[in-house]
Amino acid sequence: MLKEVNYKDLKFNPFNLIGGEWMLASAGNEKDGCNTMTVSWGGLGCLWGHNDPVATIYLRPSRYTKTFVDKEEFFTLCVMDKSFKKQMAYLGSVSGRDEDKIKKAGLEPVFADGTVYFSQVKLVLVCRKMYAQELQEKDFFYPKTIEESYPQRDFHTMYIGKIEKVLVRDDEYLK
Ligand SMILES: Cc1cc2nc3c(=O)[nH]c(=O)nc-3n(C[C@H](O)[C@H](O)[C@H](O)COP(=O)(O)O)c2cc1C
User: Fold this and answer.
1) What is the pTM of this model?
2) DSSP string, 76-120
3) Which residue of 18, 73, 82, 94 is surrounded by the most CB atoms within 10 Å?
4) What is the mean pLDDT of each run of 10 residues along the chain (175 residues)?
């Protein structure tokens, strides 16, 4: 059973959570469909408003999930149990254009709050899309970053979402 909590009561190390446990970035709705992909690049912090809580993700142009994030008002970030690591590696290597990944990974979509997440999640951040911008080659300070991460010049689009709802399964991420 998921319960809504205040983002101020969350307790975890964002570096380990995003970079280590990974997250699923998802968008879509029941009528037009949805998609999900694994992300491990991103950030959590405060921006605009009254130190509003925000999540930032970075999607390459080729990602099918990007087409959903681009047309939807919301996206979600889901943290899954460690037992889903194999499915997350799969969701992060195969495109939803080619396979019904969600079904094959055994995930059950939940369509709520104008977006989609999965019944098996441990933690969900429901994010309202606030800003999107493609990273620009001219704005990198070190050519090495481009050589290493963008040899094909397929620069990520950065999405900043205001975290409007936080759902947790148990107290693991609460202080
Ligand atoms: C651990 C891991 C982390 C990833 N992080 C990102 C990321 O932050 N941004 C991104 O664009 N792709 C990332 N990917 C790659 C996408 O998840 C992958 O290309 C996926 O198949 C895209 O699916 P889609 O075409 O159905 O959207 C990651 C993959 C893995 C395995």
Assistant:
1) 0.98
2) EEEE--GGGHHHHHHHTTS-TTTS-HHHHTT--EEEETTEEEETT
3) 18
4) 96 96 98 98 98 98 98 98 97 98 98 97 98 98 98 98 97 89
Pocket test for ligand 1, best of 18, 21, 34, 37 (most atoms within 8 A of CB): 37
Q: How far apart are CA 115 and CA 68, in angstroms?
A: 10
Q: Are strands 109-112 and 115-118 parallel, antiparallel or unpaired?
A: antiparallel
Distance in Å, CA 87 to ligand 1 centroid: 12
Side chain identity at residue 140, one-letter code: F
Query: DSSP state, 26?
Result: E
Count CB atoms within 10 A of the CB of residue 170.
11
